[in-house]
Automatic annotation (TrEMBL):
<protein>
    <recommendedName>
        <fullName>Pentatricopeptide repeat protein</fullName>
    </recommendedName>
</protein>
<feature type="repeat" description="PPR">
    <location>
        <begin position="594"/>
        <end position="629"/>
    </location>
</feature>
<feature type="region of interest" description="Disordered">
    <location>
        <begin position="38"/>
        <end position="67"/>
    </location>
</feature>
<comment type="similarity">
    <text>Belongs to the PPR family. P subfamily.</text>
</comment>
<dbReference type="InterPro" id="IPR002885">
    <property type="entry name" value="PPR_rpt"/>
</dbReference>
<dbReference type="InterPro" id="IPR050872">
    <property type="entry name" value="PPR_P_subfamily"/>
</dbReference>
<dbReference type="InterPro" id="IPR011990">
    <property type="entry name" value="TPR-like_helical_dom_sf"/>
</dbReference>
<dbReference type="Pfam" id="PF13041">
    <property type="entry name" value="PPR_2"/>
</dbReference>
Length: 842
């Protein structure tokens, strides 16, 4: 809409005075005061060259009818020239007149008065501008229509040409508050101080900034980068920054949307608000609220709360900002610890005619639960919130309330909130010594612990364990083992210590149970398995812990899974001595070892350089203790060979590894196990082949490939063949020129063997068309064996020549009936797959 009449009171024969903002900005008239401060005598070269007649007292006719043609020419020449630095002269060298409401003309005194009263255009200029505006609107609509029809590239090209023709950068974007941004440019700075301002101007003029109306993370980062660099320069003359620039900077720096995570957002808002205050730019109501919040977060809590109180009559009384104002106050007052005032603000909000948001009570619940004296008030606030939400309350609301009470050791209130979430009928457990049967059981407590562990609230889960045991419920080992595993997976030193403490407490409970069982047998001659009470049950009670309350003496006994979790952690961290201690305690606890525990101790000894001891333990545990190995066991054993551990290989150790590897393969075939994961199915055959390749056991390698084809359903892939032909897999992980050459040479070798195989097929009468799946698998196995013979120095060896060596290796590896005799019943009995192998290469 056009400006008010009071600002356009000069009537110079024009029918209209409205000029659109975009055109004024494009003519660089965003700051009129510096422009009108110049002497009009220097506006055009033509007027400067003409001699000026001496000024005389104007007659009545000249006061009524000024020279409009001269005024229009001077005005248009000034529009073409653009703004110049302000002059110190304030007087007008040319007489300008303004028509008053009474109809008389009054001469303007100086430049300031001229700046206030001027601003209109004549009919010709107004018509041209209106025509230009219509053309711009039509062009924008045409480009949008082209984009919707799929011609986005052509539309972008035309848009660039259009902008280049107009020689301006027009954003026309919509901000979150509905502001439109026209030409964004800051002028009035010169010299070296101009550089950061020009960099900021270049950023504001980018077409990619706020593309589509939504800032990108890059826009936010670069906006603060350029603005912070220009702040010192802009502070010298804040008046040179147009309001449109302030609004645009605020829109970008305060943006909070998907994909934008700016940890310094509130700091940037705080600094920008201070600069706008210094520049005398009034903040809009939503901006004031955000500025108060930023002030509070940046550490000025007292000042922010005072500013919030002072705004009660303005922001707190407007319908548009009423809800946001009081919600901000509740959050700030709760964080500041003023729960009484926060509660009054929350009541004002919830009792108003505005739609209440009962979740604003959550920060109040947190603030009240933090203090022991107001915990009951926190529970009352929770019940009020639950009543107000009614059927709209969500599980996330309950989870947050439970987390609040657990954080401040109010476990009883947390359990009551969990009961409210799980049961439709009211079950009150507060103040009761024993929990009702409906909630005081392993299943209900297990659900809660599982939910807490899954949500990552591990300390809260431990507090629940301590609390329910004090109510006579001993948590099950499965629940505590889950907590142990979650603590250890977190990787922090604090959680590692907590897990070890709890695990050894469970182990001690197991040792106490074993001691009690032995004593009962010695005294009574029998043992009642229902008697699970530990020895010296009340020891340790009465002491306090600052975080968890009474010291927790675990009654849950450790299981094999507990030992396994602890053993894996010790093995991963390289704590070999602690692992040895754990296995000594394992015997005292009378817990039967498992294959997982055996794998961890074997791996630990192997990593510690005691491969012989690792193999001895494996033999002892499998033969004497009856531990049944699995696929992970044999993967660990093959990795314990010196060729897989040492960088510099010892020929003597390599020869020993060849015999050891054949023995491991025999044990693997004879053991009763099956593949349990796809990972072990992929790793084990590959590790076996590479181990025998490193020991140069080429006959054993060929026998292993044939045996694994029958027992594992193993089919080599082309990538595996290229990797084997290129060299050791571990050394090829480093990307170097030498490794690239090795991979290229290995691929050439495999491709040559594949071409030779296909030529043999053609000579045997193969049609040469696409190969079937069976033929493809046969080709890969044939190429593998030919490459093994090539690597072993016998590329032309026949099956008859190889037969004695293969039979010897097959006997040592325990697969003579499988590879040589091909006994179908023996193959079916020793197969390690639960189903028939697929024909596709694995």
């Amino acid at each position: 809409m056009p400006p008010p009449r009071s600002l356009l009171s000069v009537d110079l024969g024009r029918r209209g005075s409205y000029v659109c903002k975009a055109c004024l900005d494009s003519l660089r008239l965003t700051n009129l005061r510096p422009w009108v401060a110049r002497q009009p005598s220097r506006l055009s070269s033509s007027t400067a060259r003409k001699p000026q007649p001496p000024q005389q007292a104007p007659s009545k006719k000249t006061e009524d009818v000024p020279d409009q043609a001269q005024l229009r020419r001077i005005f248009l020449e000034e529009l073409e020239r653009g703004p110049e630095p302000p002059s110190a002269t304030t007087a007008l060298d040319v007489a300008y007149f303004n028509k008053e409401p009474s109809g008389k003309f009054r001469r303007l005194k100086d430049n300031d008065e001229f700046a206030v009263e001027s601003g209109g255009l004549d009919t010709e200029i107004e018509s041209a501008i209106s025509h230009l505006e219509q053309q711009m609107v039509d062009t924008a609509k045409m480009l949008q229509k082209m984009e919707k029809q799929g011609n986005k590239e052509k539309a972008d090209e035309l848009r660039r040409q259009f902008k280049k023709t107009l020689r301006l950068q027009y954003k026309g974007k919509m901000g979150p508050e509905g502001e439109k941004y026209g030409v964004l440019r800051i002028t009035g700075f010169s010299g070296l101080r101009r550089r950061p301002v020009e960099a900021l101007n270049a950023f504001l003029a980018r077409d990619s900034v706020v593309e589509g109306g939504i800032p990108r993370p890059r826009d936010v980062v670069e906006c603060w980068k350029y603005y912070s660099a220009a702040r010192k320069t802009l502070a010298m003359a804040w008046d040179n920054v147009p309001r449109e620039v302030w609004d645009f900077l605020w829109m970008i720096l305060s943006w909070e949307g998907d994909g934008i995570e700016d940890p310094n957002r509130m700091q940037h808002i705080y600094m920008l608000a201070k600069d706008m205050q210094s520049a005398g730019v009034p903040l809009r109501d939503p901006q004031q609220l955000l500025a108060i919040e930023a002030m509070f977060i940046e550490g000025w809590r007292e000042e922010a709360i005072d500013a919030w109180k002072k705004a009660a009559g303005t922001l707190g009384s407007k319908r548009e900002t009423f809800t946001d104002y009081y919600e901000l106050g509740v959050r700030m007052l709760c964080l500041h610890g003023d729960t009484n005032r926060a509660q009054r603000a929350a009541e004002t909000l919830l009792r108003s005619s505005h739609p209440p948001n009962a979740r604003i009570l959550l920060p109040l619940i947190r603030a009240q639960a933090e203090k022991e004296a107001t915990v009951a008030d926190a529970w009352e606030s929770y019940t009020n919130m639950r009543m107000l939400l009614g059927e709209t309350i969500t599980i996330e609301d309950y989870d947050e309330v439970i987390n609040i009470f657990l954080t401040f050791n109010c476990v009883e209130y947390a359990l009551q909130a969990f009961i409210d979430m799980m049961f439709s009928k009211a079950i009150d457990i507060r103040g009761k010594t024993r929990l009702p049967l409906a909630v005081g059981n392993h299943f209900f407590i297990g659900k809660w612990l599982k939910r807490l562990i899954g949500a990552g609230d591990l300390d809260g889960a431990y507090k629940v364990v301590v609390y329910v045991q004090s109510k006579g419920i001993t948590p099950s080992p499965i629940q505590l083992n889950g907590l142990l595993g979650a603590w250890l997976r977190s990787g922090t030193a604090e959680n590692q210590e907590k897990a070890e403490t709890l695990a050894w407490a469970m182990i001690q409970a197991r040792l106490d149970y074993v001691a009690l069982r032995r004593r009962h047998k010695d005294v009574l001659g029998f043992w009642d398995p229902c008697d699970t009470s530990p020895v010296d049950e009340n020891s340790g009670e009465g002491t306090q812990d600052a975080q968890y309350g009474p010291v927790y003496r675990c009654r849950t006994r450790a299981t094999a899974e507990t030992f396994s979790i602890l053993a894996e952690n010790y093995c991963t961290r390289g704590l070999h001595d602690r692992l040895k201690e754990l296995f000594e305690v394992l015997k005292q606890a009378e817990v039967g070892p498992t294959s997982f525990l055996m794998n961890q101790i074997v791996r630990s000894y192997s990593q510690n350089g005691q491969a012989d001891e690792a193999i001895r333990l494996y033999r002892t545990m499998t033969t004497e203790q009856g531990v049944r190995p699995d696929g992970h066991t044999f993967l660990t054993l093959f990795n314990s060979l010196s060729v897989n551990r040492l960088v510099l290989r010892d020929p003597e150790l390599s020869r020993q590894d060849m015999l050891t590897a054949r023995a491991f393969f025999r044990d693997m075939v004879e053991a009763d196990w099956t593949f349990d994961t796809a990972d072990i199915f992929a790793q084990l055959p590959r590790t076996i082949l590479f181990s025998m390749l490193k020991t140069k056991d080429y006959h054993g390698m060929m026998v292993a490939a044939r045996a694994m084809r029958e027992l594992f359903g193993f089919h080599p892939t082309e990538a595996l063949l290229v990797e084997m032909a290129s060299g050791s897999s571990t050394s090829l992980l480093v990307r170097t020129k030498r490794n690239a050459e090795r991979l290229l040479a290995g691929r050439r070798t495999i491709e040559g063997l594949m071409r030779k195989h296909r030529m043999d097929l053609l000579r045997k009468g193969h049609p040469g068309d696409d190969m079937t799946a069976e033929e493809r698998v046969a080709e890969l196995h044939d190429v593998l064996e030919k490459w093994i013979l090539l690597k072993g120095g016998a590329p032309g060896a026949t099956e008859e020549q190889l037969q004695p060596h293969l039979e010897e290796a097959a006997r040592e590896m325990g697969v003579y009936d499988i590879v040589v005799r091909k006994d179908a019943m023996e193959i079916a009995r020793r197969r390690k797959l639960n189903k028939a192998p697929a024909l596709e290469p694995q």
